[in-house]
């Protein structure tokens, strides 16, 4: 395996140093790195920020079933290009990832592709139908070692089923990741319920449909003493509820997506389904509240909710459009734009919310580690000084439904290393043949 000498990188935005990547680990840093480098390939990282490899707790890879939108291979290559070294693959595939067989299939596809570690999420209910508990234990003890369980795409609406799932996952230190959407309050919903939906005459998805489920679930988690994770939190009220729950000592974590950190429901005026997503884009006040929640730690992580859809599901009238946006290749740029360049997060905070904390929530022990000697060489090198216009056609995801098409965003991932192996170099993925397990 090739050794790499990363020259003059700034770990977490700090002092420049050299890093020697050998045998899958960070073998040396500082002056030792150059001294011990031998024939290592030199990667010039002057001016680049080194971050622990990013970990996404919420990715839709679409395989099995919707390989026209994305495959494990194309989605994980896009992830590597976005600076990720691990992703959690959501269970809303066809068939649903609700058995040990399906999660092992996805886990194997991830290993064969070799771009990032793929951690399958297991469904909470059989077929995401919200009726019968899936085989959580079998998925947890399978080769895929599932720790995150979610019916994402659907809400676990039945409080009894939610309670039983929360109780069950305690046995293997798992977590239930809830897509908080009260189904009765969102029947036929097309966008955020508010002034814009009223003007456009589109059926609204009210904030209370999210907040009422989160309020219920934090109380259930407290009642049974279990661990809850809130997917794609999007409203000011949700931030308040999570803040209150944490102040009571409830074991809850929460994520925000890049798009909810920057986009608002005003975009629906375009009637362009690129802006149609679940939960919907909210108001400017909500955007400010989720930024503040991420800044003060109420919101633990940024997760992409990368949701690729084929052109025919987006190139249509708004009501017929699918919910979801791609996000793996724009997540870090959006976080830099909204949180770093505004002075609200440091690079060390970015490492926490995009790597360390998601790894901890997903119980992934070899990711999100410090960039110190002896640690696994999972890292990404970012050039924060570049600004680029997003071009979906040039992205690596198989789908083009980016809400940022034509938008200029800061930051470029120049290199990504998975256990010391380069998956991205010079800003481009390393050819498939060279990847291999
Ligand atoms: N976020 C979305 O709008 N869509 C997701 C499902 C989900 O995350 O709820 C999808 O699978 O397309
Ligand atoms: Zn969801
Ligand atoms: Zn999702």
From TrEMBL:
Residues 49-235 form the Dihydroorotase catalytic domain. One of its GO terms (molecular function) is dihydroorotase activity. It is an enzyme of class 3 (hydrolase). Its cofactor is Zn(2+). InterPro entries: DHOase, DHOase/Allantoinase_Hydrolase, DHOase_cat, Dihydroorotase_CS, Metal-dep_hydrolase_composite, Metal_Hydrolase. Binds 2 Zn(2+) ions per subunit. It catalyses: (S)-dihydroorotate + H2O = N-carbamoyl-L-aspartate + H(+). Zn(2+) 1 binds at residues 58, 60, 152, 305. Pfam families: DHOase. Catalyzes the reversible cyclization of carbamoyl aspartate to dihydroorotate. This is Dihydroorotase. It comes from Georgenia soli.
């Amino acid at each position: 395996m090739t050794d790499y000498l990363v020259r003059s990188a700034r770990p977490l935005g700090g002092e420049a140093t050299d890093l020697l990547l050998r045998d899958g680990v960070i073998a040396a840093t500082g002056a030792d790195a150059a001294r011990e480098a031998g024939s290592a390939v030199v990667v010039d990282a002057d001016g680049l920020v080194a971050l622990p490899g990013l970990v996404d707790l919420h990715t839709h890879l679409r395989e099995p079933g919707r390989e026209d939108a994305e495959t494990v291979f194309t989605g994980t290559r896009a992830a590597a290009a976005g600076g990720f070294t691990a992703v959690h693959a959501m269970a809303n595939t066809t068939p649903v990832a609700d058995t040990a067989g399906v999660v092992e299939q996805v886990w194997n596809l991830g290993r064969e592709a070799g771009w990032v570690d793929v951690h399958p999420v297991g469904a909470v209910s059989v077929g995401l139908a919200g009726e019968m508990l899936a085989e959580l234990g079998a998925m947890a003890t399978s080769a895929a070692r599932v720790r995150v369980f979610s019916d994402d795409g659907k809400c676990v609406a039945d409080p009894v089923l939610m309670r039983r799932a929360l109780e069950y996952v305690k046995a293997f230190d798992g977590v239930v990741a809830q897509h908080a959407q009260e189904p009765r309050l969102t029947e036929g919903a097309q966008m955020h319920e508010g002034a814009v939906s009223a003007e456009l005459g589109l059926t609204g998805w009210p904030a209370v449909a999210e907040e009422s489920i989160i309020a219920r679930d934090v109380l259930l988690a407290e009642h049974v003493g279990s661990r809850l994770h809130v997917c794609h939190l999007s409203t000011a009220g949700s931030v308040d509820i999570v803040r209150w729950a944490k102040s009571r000592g409830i074991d809850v974590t929460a994520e925000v997506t890049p798009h909810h950190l920057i986009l608002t429901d005003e975009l629906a005026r375009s009637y362009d389904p690129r802006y149609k997503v679940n939960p919907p884009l909210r108001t400017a006040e909500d955007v400010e509240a989720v930024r503040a929640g991420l800044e003060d730690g109420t919101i633990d992580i940024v997760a992409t909710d990368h949701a690729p859809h084929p052109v025919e599901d987006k190139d249509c009238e708004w009501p017929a459009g699918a919910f979801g946006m791609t996000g793996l290749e724009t997540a870090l740029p959006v976080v830099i734009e909204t949180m770093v360049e505004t002075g609200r997060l440091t690079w060390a905070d970015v490492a926490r919310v995009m790597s360390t904390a998601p790894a901890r929530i997903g119980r992934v022990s070899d990711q999100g580690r410090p960039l110190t000697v002896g640690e696994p060489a999972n890292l990404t090198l970012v050039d924060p000084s570049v600004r680029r216009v997003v071009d979906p056609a040039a992205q690596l995801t198989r789908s083009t439904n980016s809400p940022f098409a034509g938008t200029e965003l800061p930051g470029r991932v120049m290199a990504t290393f998975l256990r010391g192996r380069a998956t991205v170099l010079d800003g481009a993925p390393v050819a498939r043949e060279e990847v291999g397990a």
